[in-house]
Structures
1.
Amino acid sequence: MSQIPTLTPLSVVGQGLVRADGHAKVTGAALYVDDVRPEGCLHGATVRSTVAHARVTRIALHPEDAAAGVVLVTADDIPGENVVALMTDDQPALASTYVKHVAEAVALVAAPNREQALHAAARAIVEYETLPALFDAETARGNAIRIFGEDNLYAHITITHGDPASLFAAPPPGTRVIEGVYRCGHQEQLYIEPQGMIATPGMVDGRPSLTLFGSMQCPFYIHKALKRVLGHTDFNVVQAVTGGGFGGKEEYPSLVAIHAALLSLKTGRPVKLIYRRDEDLRATTKRHPMRGRYRSLVDEKTGRLLACDAELLFDGGAYNTLSPVVNSRGVIHAIGPYRCDNVRSEALMVATHTPPNGAFRGFGAPQAMWAAERHMDRIARTLGLDPIAVRRENLYRDGDVTPTGQTLKDVGVGIVLEAALERAEKPLPASQSQTRPGGGGAAARVAQGRGLALAWHGCGFTGNGEAALKGKAAVALEGRDVVVYVASTDIGQGVETIFPQIVAETLGIAVERVRNAPHDTALVPDSGPTVASRTTMVVGGVAEKAARQLRAALAAEVGFEGDFDAMLAARKSVASLRVQAEYTDDGSLVWDPKTYQGDAYPAFGWCCVIVDLEVDLDTGEVTHRRLVQATDVGRAINPVLCSGQLEGGALQALGYATSEELVLDAQHGMRNNRLTNYIVPTTLDAPEMETILVEIPFAGGPFGAKGIGEIPHDVPHAAVAQALEQATGAVLERLPMTPERIVAALAAGPTETQA
Amino acid sequence: MTLIVSESPVLDPRTLAEALQLRAAHPEAMPLAGGTDVMVYLEAGVIDPPRWLNLWRLNALRGLSRSGDTLRIGALATHTDIGRNADAQTLAPALVEACRTVGAAQIQNRGTLGGNIVNASPAGDTLPVLLALDAVFELHSAARGERRVPAAAFWQAYRKMDLASDELLVAVHLPAPGAGDHTHYRKVGTRLAQAISKVVLGARVRLDAGVVTEARVAYGSVAATPVRCPKTEAALVGRRAGDLAAAADLVAQDIRPIDDVRSTAEYRRDVAARVLRGWLGTLTA
């Protein structure tokens, strides 16, 4: 067995401790937003557009609701600016004059009970003059109907590296040009509880205040957005227990919080605004659909990449949200973990009259690497080479230079590839598709296949994002215990467990004596958002630094540096001792956001996924049998939680691969907006999982940790496509690979198809 | 947390006679058994009945019993009850298999066979099996007593059935399989649990000396009701085992699939024929 790099566990870090919030969650004691009901609370509901593009000419309550005292809030009730402040100010809090997508919030209502509020919202009177709508990104780009800016582009980035144009113009002997087009559809984040927020008015220091309590990833995003709408900062934002976010609770909760706040402001009462699941699915952001057009010049004997030209076209939807970041991460990851010295990669983010697409685990990388990995398979197929051999030929090695001009070190992609291949040698479990009830038994014709895919994923914000943000964390001695103050939220990934582990290890005390403070903007500093695989690696590093400063502060107070409890015993004061640290740039990263040249990320994660599956040749049903993943995580702070993140992310990607599809109506609203019809995998659909943690420490992360939140979602779908091809010869280049598309591809025969 | 609330009054009979009287007196009342469909409709705002008729306490409607050549299944028998019943496993293995594919464990524990029948969804997982097995439904009313309707005549149009507003479904009768009977169940769903069918097949073929003497081919999710396939069945009768698969070519003429949020008409048409063809191919004399 080859040696897989791992690190020796420390006394707290590296231990698979039970999660701090686990007991409350499994016993039902944890309070999610809808479990809380302040006294005198009203219920809010949202009046939504029924058309994609229109001028709004009238908004009114149904007369019976008006007579019954239902409260209506429109844009006229906004004290500050009518905007959801994020990257640009294009999205209104309430669409008062124009609606730009179906299910857009036009007005709000509040009533004493939820049923009454929902009923009033459903029958509120909104009159429209409908306008022509653009639903297709290719058509919308540069169209005379304006959605955003001059050309309906939210972002447009081109990276140029080497001289691809000359090579394509005059291909050297022994080379081939290989072209392909690869597509992906929407994907829903599908967090556990729908969007929800409670706004409660109160008094702080004799001044009226407001508390926003709800399901969220980023308390300070909400703080910044609400400040613009209210025109003041006499409010705080508190995270409720949040059952997963996956990006869906990143920017969208700002809108929910604004709405709850406006209703509370108008009524003077606490207001609870909880989306129904069907409403949530129709109205909230999704993963961006993409079309990738790839052209490569390769050595025809080895498949070595000599030049690549990739164009990614993303559908951003009706408002900008965080789409430029998706565009950016997409274009940087467009070639996959492969060296190519002559690259042109371009990404365009187009505005359409569809519900805005937004943050989702991977941020464009899962789409870009779907295309990159399918293209790698196309190269292998065209040249008659083994797809793994072509990957081995091209994968990054230490000292290679990326398309942005970053010189790589500690490259783990070769290690994860060999580790996963070795583990995949284990015999497969017995087939179940022919023995499960309703599976067809001996009559079912099935084929087996195995597929492999490789990913790289930049950890943390792109370029100098972290240096500009200066994420903060505080650590305080309170009695004999230590409290960690971070805005980084626990959204299931383990912040409440991992941060105490980092701080306890640094201080040399038992982890039981360290806990996180509530994620309340009145208490915690702005650590930056809980996104981008940055929480453990970046904010965890700041918390470690704060813990070291706390030791130093304590040593200064007692006059000697030693064991934490010895210093504590020597302390005379009982006052709490709090220190705050912030992220500082060591100046080693150089990045030019204009040319997209330089060091794109402080570190990269590396991952290899191998999927074994079985496909029913009559029905196209896919049974995922085993998923092996080997991932370079830097250092697993908590190996149990780390593996859990990786396995959950991979399962989410298997849904993206074969079952998750948005069915759209004529206005491009989601038709299958119920859990029975939007098909995410259940436990029964999950394969056996083998998860290998490779630890190549990153000097810039706490105890060597890298970010791992997104990488598991990057390429399992590509491994599934290769496995289907191996099993049946069918080539699928569009996501999701539903049974319907698989059957069509099988009917087309073992040739190249555009399913 | 958010509760699914109905403030309508509940009628709560303890005997079948009482239930039938209440059913006649309150035709507007929504009968409630396991609630696995009704609760979904209520939450979705599809129904808001002024009154409920709670059947859950009618224990007499719960059991399974065998008498001679017939298996009688009480309308309130849950999918779990049927799946675990030794007589059902012997006499109706295809129905047992179907019950094990309904929803997931929680739904199977609560959902009833009678509920599946009168919910009359074209996608009901057990319904094609009931058609294939020549099930007979026992209906009762206070005014007219008992009558029996064969499954093949029960579902008349989309969500319309041969059930009067004062009647309740009390039991399902399944004749025991004859000598030479072969049965098959195949569910093509959207995933492995909590899945609504895209195509569901229940089939039975009786072979006598290698020749088909009786054939039942029934599908769900391919028409407005669960349907039998008369052309396919007729084509099978008289054919010899080993040469049956071609009859599946006629399935397309017997079904009327549509495009919906779960699948396409084309997929359903092709797959319905293929899963039948595959099974027919395994039958040998």
2.
Amino acid sequence: MKWDWSAVGDFMPRFWDGVLVTLQALVLGSLIAFALGLVWAMAQRSPLKAVRWPVMVVTEFIRNTPLLVQLFFLFYVLPEWGLTLSALTTGIVGLGLHYSTYTAEVYRAGIDGVPVGQWEACTALSMPRGRTWSAVILPQAIRRVVPALGNYVIAMLKDSPMIAVIGALEMLGQARQFTSITFLPTEPITVVGIAFIVIAYPASLLTRALERRLVR
Amino acid sequence: MTDLTAGLWELLFKGVWVTVQLTVFSAALGAFVAFVVGVARTNRLWIVRFLSGLYMEIFRGTSALVLMFWMFFVLPVAFGWQLVPMWAAVLALGLSYGAYGSEIVRGALAAVAPAQQEAGIALSFSPWQRLVKIQLPQAWPEMVPPANNLLIELLKGTALVSVLGVGDITFGAALVRNALGESAPVYTIILVMYFILAFLLTRVMRAVERKAKAGIGQAPQKGQGVLRKLTIPRQADAPSSDLSKSAGGA
């Protein structure tokens, strides 16, 4: 096996650029996933069937089809409809949308875990629906699901190299570009692979610690 | 939609066949890896537990796409092993999803009552006999529902191979897109194709689950699996519908 440390050194400036883009995609993607997932989860509890069913069908569809194809769809089809986004923006929207269908399930489980008595108490106090959600149900539900949400952030991190395929220069994208210039694939791709483990492993330890603290 | 000629449809359907093959082969390799690593993680020797745990953390920690690139671009240069793209893909998918699967196997084995294990020792079963005749048959039904979710993740993961030039559905779609000069129809079609494949996979796994649960005298749980909401009539979700009912009654 040929390993060239100077190639690693040459790759480093690009690598840090890539790390920044990966983290940017991860943070913004997570924010979209957390917010949109909550919207899906609450819509699935709507008293109106006309709201529940479409949301259910859409989330099932997005969850059961590949993220990569969804990214291509967003990247190639949206411009045909007159909406042109940069590769990175498309990637962030794609990651956020895809993972929002997972976080919706997580929130749903958390909401189901809130005892029925809490809902009944709100009815007894004739609390408006908005306040029931914001002051009673969600604070109890979300606390319990924080570790599970953390797991999906880690899963999203590991899916983030897919946005390199549509041309966003995150870690893997930078490695590919470096390889195409220098014809050295070994060092950059190995460095990127290890970087994922170095980020993901402590993060998974963190979610396990959160699980012990928050889920009781 | 109507612009797709028979030849272009054929490209897509060839892709479906490649995707199905990839899913089946990777699932077979993944299941093998999952059982070996999952069982090794319950081994008596710490070194076996440590090595299997290390394998799991490494392959779960890194990204499947990066692993695929590594096998495809680094292995030939660094070690001189040139794999056929199809098999590089199967290897990468099988090894990484096997690492996820090993957690399912380990969890299901841990859920078998310890008294079962002790009864096996009391009857002087060998460790292998205890595993094969006592633990696995009872753990198996527990594994099926999470394995279903993982299989759907694997099916979705197979789309990555198109990046390496393996002619799966997504690769076929890129060709059709170039031929048509239009993206919306073909990408809509293949999203539906993936969804149908995932749906069929869930149906098969539901049947496997029923059989597995029947084998230890249990009825399958209602409302399991990823597509439950589309396939099983939704039970009235307790709090909100109770609320509306009681509000209506009052």
